[in-house]
Amino acid sequence: MGITMRGGAEAIARRTDWSTLGRYHKLVLMELVGSVDERIETHRIPASVLVRLEIRRIYRDAQIQDDEFYHFSNDLFLKDLGICRLALLPCGAELVEVGAGVPRRLLFRGDLRQLVRGLSFFLFRTHGFRPFYSLHLDPRQREEFNPDGWDRTYIRIADLLALHPGVKGVFGSAWFYDPHLETISPHLVYLRQRRIAGGAVSFRYGSHPAAVSDALATSATRRRLHAAGRYVPTAHYLIWPRESLLRWAAHHRSAVRMLAGKESRRPAENSRDEPR
């Protein structure tokens, strides 16, 4: 669908203007909104996942949002399109991409020990590199970036896993999974440690421009240490196998306060956001 939409978008842009293209994309979203209830049943999405809440937000926003919002250059529009297609499932602190896979090159991004450990992990614990759920940050859900919000997110992911036995687990890649943050930004350690304690496994991926810019964007401390050569933002993968996550959820579910009927925020400007 993505390729078809992009081809149609290019044709519309050539023949009309950007405003018309935005209205076309808005119409596509509304068509998807109209069929979402039937598709939720087909895709076996549990009630705890916040699809209907986000669909209502997308519908409301379409009444007031500028046409320019609905362009492929806007990451927030792409996220809304993914939600309407049920390719991205809103689980709270993160959007969950379905049908993702862990890149095999991850095995070779660390030292020999990571290669050996990774081969054992993917051979004997997950039995392969796909399909997994993959995590994606939505800046409109920044209020859920706290320990309770992440617990709620993973409870919802466990609900998804329970209905989809073929999915091997969930993974995310981010600078805030770096174990060096224990001394640099200790308030973010929960993002990694709470999952490691529940059976998740961490793999080093390495530094790259996006990890550096995201890590330095909101912290003067990290910027100062980076400028002094004492901190290099480094991305790590955190992979939580399904059985470990399901056990964690069964043990912690009664202690996690789930929120019902919580209204989503209005769309933020098109920019990445991250923990501070």
Write down the domain tally. Answer: 2
Looking at the overall shape, the CATH architecture of the largest domain is 3-Layer(aba) Sandwich
Rg (CA only): 20 Å
Given the structure, what is the number of helices?
Answer: 12
Shape: globular
The percent of residues in helical segments reads 40-55%
Structure description:
By secondary structure, the chain is α+β, with helices and mostly antiparallel strands. It folds into two domains: 1-86, no CATH class; 91-276, Aminopeptidase, CATH 3.40.630. 48% of the residues lie in helices and 13% in strands. A six-stranded mixed β-sheet has the order 1-2-3-4-6-5, with helices on both faces. Helix 2 (18-34) runs antiparallel to helix 4 and helix 7 (147-163) crosses helix 12 (242-252). The longest helix is centred in the first third of the chain and has 17 residues, at 18-34. The chain is globular. Residues 263-273 have low confidence and may be disordered.
Task: Write a brief structural summary.
It contains twelve helices and six strands.
SSE blueprint:
Elements: H1 2-15, H2 18-34, H3 36-42, H4 51-64, H5 75-85, E1 88-90, E2 94-100, H6 112-125, E3 132-137, H7 147-163, E4 169-174, H8 181-184, H9 190-197, E5 201-206, H10 209-216, H11 220-227, E6 235-241, H12 242-252
Parallel strand pairs: 3-4
Antiparallel strand pairs: 1-2, 2-3, 4-6, 5-6
